Amino acid sequence: MAPPKRDFGSEARWWTSLPGGAVECGLCPRRCRVSDGEYGFCRARVNRGGRFFSEVWGRPAAVHIDPIEKKPFNWYMPGSRVFSIGTFGCNLGCVFCQNHELSRAEAGASATLEEASPAAVVSSAIAAGCPAIAFTYNEPTVFAEYAIEMAKLARQRGLATLLVSNGYISDEAAAEFYPLISAANIDIKGDDAFYRRMCGGELSPVLAACRRLLSHGSHLEVTNLVLPGENDDPGQVALWLEVLAAELGVEVPLHFSASFAAYHYYGRPTPRATLERMAGQAAARGFKRVALGNVF
Ligand code: SF4
Fold first, then answer.
1. Which atom belonging to ligand 1 lies closest to the Cα atom of 14?
2. What is the DSSP string of 3-47?
């Protein structure tokens, strides 16, 4: 059953009360402490009177039908067109965000959007003839409550469920969300130093999320957005590939994707030769399925 409608969304999961009307969010490793009237870092969750609400529940900011290869998935349901949905908000602060209009939208932006219940979304996907629904565009972790309801209904009605995510999620939330996911593409951005310097996060929760997806039997692909001069050093890449091989195995498909200047990042576009060199390094390390992305 859908939670009751409110003018600021639906009550959130995974939070605890703190003294003085504040709350602590347990949805992602950031574990924001949020005072009454304030938003969490992701701008999707808000404290109203000492209770915590998801402002993005039932309020999609983007809905499209896309080729599954655009997510990207190259080794799952190839050739399919998938019903893709996202909201506002993100729980990482990547300075190079390629999608900041959605991820860093103003707090409160969701309140202006039309509502769409999980049942309505799943019915729309089926009516459109899509075999899968994808949680994508912004970071699905921040709309986990909404995605979980959509995923349950989608699976009941025979649809596959796809997750395109940064994997920055708490273990308690992933324990409920990830068993409902058929296939995931997780963005692994670089080594831990890169996460801390460029994203305001850390690598270890992302690897834990990937391991959990594999443990549930989900199909997993990994995408690495390549920023020239930031995460493409051959020695750094070799170490990063060792971590991936040890943590996830060399069967996991890898995508090396070109970046362009966006948000607070003003670097040059990634040369194709850089992507090809990194793909060659991955192949030499034993990774069997390697793809290039955003190359034209
Ligand atoms: S989900 Fe949002 S509010 Fe919760 S800890 Fe993460 S960034 Fe903060």
1. 4
2. PPP-TT-EEPSSEEE-GGG-EEE-SSTT--EE-TTPBPTTSSEEE
Tell me how far apart the alpha carbons of residues 262 and 24 are, in angstroms, rounded to a whole number.
31
Superfamily name and number for 62-293? Aldolase class I (3.20.20.70)
pLDDT given at position 2? 46
59 C-alpha to ligand 1 centroid (Å): 18
Is residue 64's pLDDT more than 50? Answer: yes
- For ligand 1, what atom is nearest to the CA of residue 43? 2
Q: Where in the chain is the domain with CATH 3.20.20.70?
A: 62-293
Q: Which two tokens stand for residue 25?
A: 């969010």
Report how far ligand 1's centroid is from the alpha carbon of 33 (Å).
9
| Longest Cα–Cα distance in the chain | 56
More confident residue, 155 or 4: 155
Q: In this model, does residue 116 exceed pLDDT 80?
A: yes
Please say if the pLDDT value at position 45 is more than 70: yes
Q: What digits encode the pLDDT tens for the residues 136-181?
A: 999 999 999 999 999 999 999 999 999 999 999 999 999 999 999 9
Establish whether residue 180 lines the binding site of ligand 1, counting it when its CB lies within 6 angstroms of any ligand atom: no
